[in-house]
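hey m, so remember when u said the tokens were messed up on ur end? i reran from scratch. heres the input so u can diff it against urs
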Amino acid sequence: MYDQLKTLEKMILDIKKQYQTVSHELSTLKQQPATDPKELAALQSKVDTSHAERDEAKKHLKDLDNRYQSLAEAHHMIGEEQDKLQKKISHLQQQNSELQQHNKQLKQQYNDVQEQNSELQKKNQLAAERTQVVLKRLTRIDQAEGS
């Protein structure tokens, strides 16, 4: 777009030079007492053409400027949206980190509970074995007393 603007600016400068040249020639011809109507008409035609080209170049420049403004607005909006998304990503990464830490704590608690459960099962089994021994002894004592 910058290159187009430079090209357009060069065209405008060329048109201005042509305009000045034609204007100077026209001024010179106006000062001369003998003017050729055909030459004057040709020069006036050149001036008119130069004006038309200049007006067209101005219109094109205005269109390019409007397009540039539109693109600049879109770029700004995209930048704002990108900032919002970046903040959201950062927030989600923080939440993820916190959840991973919480998950780690829960895993540790789970492992601790598993270990306690295993120890309690061993104690329960030992208590059951001792209960069996005590019951056998009591049964023997009962049988011995009964005989």
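this time it looks ok to me. The chain has two helices and no strands. if urs says something different then somethings off w ur setup not the seq
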